[in-house]
Amino acid sequence: IVEMSEPGSRFSLEGAEDLDVGSYSLQAYSIAPENDYFSVSFRSRSEGGKSVELVLEKALDREEEPEVTFSLIATDGGSPPRTGTAQIRIIVLDINDNAPVFSQELYRGQILENAPKGSLVLRVLATDADVGANGEISFSFSQALDQSHSAFEIDAQSGEIRVTQPLDFEASHKHELRIRATDGGGLSALCKVLVEVVDVNDNAPELVVSSFVSPVAESALPGTVVGLFVVKDRDAGANGKVSCWLEEQASFSLRAAYKNYYELLVLTKALDREEAAFYDVMLKAVDGGDPARTGTVRIHVVVLDANDNAPVFSQSVYTIRVREDVPVGSALLTVSATDADDGMNGEVTFL
What we know:
Layout: E1 10-13, E2 26-32, E3 38-44, E4 50-56, E5 67-76, E6 83-91, E7 101-102, E8 106-112, E9 120-123, E10 126-127, E11 137-141, E12 152-154, E13 160-163, E14 174-183, E15 188-198, E16 206-212, E17 216-217, E18 225-232, E19 242-246, E20 252-258, E21 261-267, E22 278-287, E23 294-304, E24 312-313, E25 337-338
Parallel strand pairs: 8-15, 17-23
Antiparallel strand pairs: 1-4, 2-5, 3-4, 5-6, 7-10, 9-13, 11-14, 12-13, 14-15, 16-18, 18-21, 19-22, 20-21, 22-23, 24-25
C-alpha cells in the first residue's frame, strides 16, 4: 500500500471458508493485535459466505513504520467458537514526501590562498528519509547574489567542494556559496557555505615616497626632514606587519611619523657638499612572514652648494725681484687661487 493513501481506503481480501453450515458457519472477522492504521469490515454475500475488507483508518508513513503486521481472525458461531487465522503483512510503498536535509545549515571552511587546483575545501552532507530514487541526492551550486562559483566546483555525488584555481586573499578573503541538494523526485534543500581564504605571505612590502626634497642645501640644520614615505603590505596579520630601516647610512636617519608613515632622511649631522656631492640612500622594509619578504627603494639625494668656503691662494706669500728699469705694464707675477664651492660660489675674481 502506498504511503499517504487516503484514510477510508478499502482493500479486499480473500475470505475464509467454513465447511459447517448454519450458525456454525463463518460469522465474523477481527484483527489482532488491534492497531491505529487498519480495521476490518465484512458483510454477507448473496451466494453465501462473507466478503472482507481492510479499511485504512489513518494515513501510513513509511518513514515512521515501513511495515504493519497483524493477524486476521475468522470466527464461527459455535460454542465454543472455532477460529482461523491468517497473517497480514502490509508493506508501505515509498512516495517522495521528504526533502533532503543537510547535516548543517551553515558550513565553514578554510583554504590557503595558494592551494593548488583540486584542493579539498570541505564536504557537505545531506540525507533523505525516502528510499530508492526518491532518496538519491545530488549536489549543485545554487545561484545567489554577490558570489561567483568560478573558483569552486562541487562533486554532485559526494558533496566535496574543491578549488578550481588558486585564490587571492587580497582580492577576496571570504567566499559565500549556496549549495542545493536535490533528490530523485525533485525535492530540494539549501545550505550556506562560508569559505575563509587564509593569507600566505605572497606580497612584498611596498615603499611609496609621498614627498621628497632634492637637492638639499648643505647648510640645512640637523633634524631637517627631507622626505616622507608610506610603507604598504597587502598581506594580513604578521605577514602584513612591516618594519623599516636605512641601510648603512651615517648622514641620515629614519623616524616613524604615524600609522605606516615615516619621516624620511632626517639629517643627523650637517652636510658638506665638498665632502659628498650626493648620497644614494637605500630604504628597506621587511614583513613578519615566514619566510619574510623584503621591499627596497633607492633615494638619490643631491647636496646643494652653499658659499661656505673662501678662495685660497696657491701660496700665502709671493716674493718677486723687479729691476728698476722694467717697463710700465710688464707682467711681474701670476697668482692663482681656488674655491672649493660650486658654480658661482666657486668663481674667483682678483682685485
